[in-house]
Amino acid sequence: MDSNEAPRRVWVQVVVAAVLMFATLPARTQGLGLFTEPMLKDLAMDRSTFATINLGATLIGSLLCFPAGFLLDRFDRRWVTITIVLALAISVWALGLQHAAIPLFVCLIATRGFGQSALSVASITWIAKVARERSRMPMAWYTVLLSVLFAAGFGVVGLGVRELGWRKTAFAIAAVLAVAVAPLPFLGRARATGARDEEMPQPADVSLSAAMKTVVFWLFAVAISLFAYVSSGIGLFNESILAERGFDRKAFEMFLIYTTLAALGGQVLCGWLGRWHKSKYLLAEALVLYAAGLGSISAMTQRWQLWAVAAVVGIAAGMMTVLFFSVWGEVFGKAQLGRIQGVAQMCTVLASAAGPVAFANAQATTGSYQSILSIMAGVAGALAVLGCFVRMPQKTESAVTAPRSSL
């Protein structure tokens, strides 16, 4: 093998993994948020009903995290990933055809399941398999590329919804998934099974059951699930939340773009601080920033304040993104990485399903989103404090040893 071939293969897989995660946009809450208002108007559906439908669809769709993780560990990742992408394309196409609540519910199950759940696990597994213990550069460039892609995607999809309508935009997205994204896994040249992916021995490889017995697994799972819970609630009703503060739809779309771009700074910051800080401290710092951003939303009245909040929330989101993608392989190894990340991903999916319902009910009950934003800011702050006192597992040459106590 040429001495330059291995690095090229790594970077090709970084790009493939990033595009695969970007392809989940129509299945993510923030992506669906771009369709929410015109869709509800078209279907004559209220926000609480849609939030409930979305909750059920996301809960059921999250079940695909388990088989996706197993299949990615056991079989050729290329074919598993291609199948998932094509299934997502069909689901998004069908979504654009719906006119009633029940078939919309079925299509949302498929879209959430194949996109937010299965394809997310696939992308995380692709990048984690090529990331090495002593080099975080592939992971760093992966997250940076993701931010750029999602920032552009929010703008393009938002423009498409305005100019073409949400249905034609859904058809266009489905076509891109099938024609442009589905063939990409063949560029990655992944080996047949997850067990053979790594030529170098890893310092820590533990099973899913062993990983779930460690405190650090649940610290990160709960904290990042909180982030998913809040960001999904804000993402689905972002336009409504900002309208409450006196901002128009254009400001809503720009808020998405600025937040995503600010995440670039968070990713760089997380990578830089990671040279000295343990993952639990990086998590605490991200949660503190996130709490500050959430607590400030209800006080926004000027455009500059909106951009300032977007910067703080975006930086926190960037840090959380890097941690979510890197901590599982870093702490637990790669032997059962697909399964471990499948469970972690399911936790975030379940949280993202519950978030919009909580935000919709809070707004319906109090007439404002202020109360739930304040509560979530407090919870994020409390988790940040707790995270500083949780012990990280100790690595050995072949396993991860759980701490003897929780704190």
> What gap, in angstroms, lies between the N and C termini?
48 Å
How is the main sheet built? 2 strands, antiparallel
Tell me the overall shape: globular
Number of helices: 17
How much strand?
under 5%
Domain tally: 1
Q: Which consecutive residue ranges, at least 5 long each, have pLDDT under 50?
A: 190-203, 396-407
Q: Helicity range of the residues?
A: over 70%
The CATH superfamily is identified as MFS general substrate transporter like domains
CATH architecture: Up-down Bundle
The beta-strand count equals: 2
Strand order of the largest sheet: 1-2
CATH topology, by name, is Growth Hormone, Chain: A
What is the CATH C-level name? Mainly Alpha
Would you tell me the structural class of the helices and strands? Answer: mainly alpha
Blueprint of the fold:
Layout: H1 5-22, H2 29-43, H3 47-61, H4 65-74, H5 77-95, H6 101-130, H7 137-164, H8 166-181, H9 185-188, H10 208-211, H11 215-236, H12 238-244, H13 249-273, H14 279-297, H15 303-332, H16 337-366, H17 370-387, E1 394-395, E2 400-401
Antiparallel strand pairs: 1-2
